[in-house]
Design goal:
This is DUF3108 domain-containing protein. The chain is mainly β and 242 residues long. It has a single domain, classed as YmcC-like fold. It is 7% helix and 59% strand. It contains 1 helix and 14 strands. The relative contact order is 0.19.
Length: 242
């Protein structure tokens, strides 16, 4: 369960970031493709042996704008490796104060909590911040998210999971090709750590190093997860429906 939760966290962090691409020259939200109503795209997830492990489809279902921010509601459909629908969910993303703000709740797949269906699950933490403008060498804000699993009847804490995302650094631009096309992308490196406490006992921490390929005007087109320098999984932008 621990590894599955960490895997889903990584995939949905990537998926959420892809859903809110930035524009290099625009300082407002109007140019964001995935903040346009009815915009669609798809991610494909693979393991270290290049085996397809699932797909995630997204569609913007509504957009609300004000002079200070833009907020979009997206509907996601998660398909397993056999192409069967596993789960659906809705979430919001926000463009405000020169940044994209990603809510931790938008990164969670309800299916990953199947083992906790008779329990109370609470999530809270930072909004992961992505500035409109990216430059090589730029340091991005860290993020910390917490998931608490409680017994519904007694309210007793059963499991606590803390995800820390640190050392977020923007690297040079690189040429990259994915199924959706060829791009020039910023390479963003970051560390991810998951600490779990179950029934009062601390479990060994799980750590990954991740690489994200971010294209101004498009968003995240590829991400990779490494453990001890070895590739564990990756996600690519499969297609965009314009």
């Amino acid at each position: 369960m621990k590894n599955k939760i960490f895997s889903f966290l990584f995939v949905f962090i990537v998926a959420t970031i892809v859903s809110v691409p930035v524009r290099v020259l625009a300082q407002d939200c109007s140019g964001y493709y995935m903040l346009h109503n009815n915009a669609e795209y798809e991610l494909a997830n693979y393991d270290k042996k290049d085996k397809l492990t699932g797909r995630v489809q997204y569609k913007v279902t509504s957009v609300n704008s004000s002079p200070t921010k833009t907020e979009a509601t997206l509907h996601s459909k998660v398909f397993d490796e056999k192409g069967e629908l596993a789960t659906e969910s809705d979430y919001t993303v926000t463009c405000q104060n020169g940044s994209i703000l990603v809510d931790i709740r938008s990164m969670m797949d309800p299916e990953m909590f199947a083992a906790y269906q008779n329990m109370d699950v609470k999530m809270h933490g930072d909004h992961l911040n992505y500035p409109l403008m990216l430059t090589t060498g730029q340091k991005l804000d860290d993020g910390t998210f917490t998931i608490d699993v409680l017994d519904k009847q007694s309210g007793q804490a059963l499991t606590s999971i803390v995800m820390n995302i640190t050392e977020r650094t923007v690297g040079d631009k690189e040429s990259i090709h994915v199924p959706a096309g060829a791009y020039s992308a910023f390479k963003i490196n970051q560390d991810m750590e998951m600490q779990t406490r179950a029934m009062g006992m601390n479990m060994p921490a799980t750590r990954l190093q991740t690489v994200e390929y971010f294209v101004p005007g498009v968003g995240m087109v590829r991400s990779e997860a490494y453990k001890n320098g070895k590739l564990q999984s990756y996600t690519v932008l499969n297609k965009i429906v314009k």
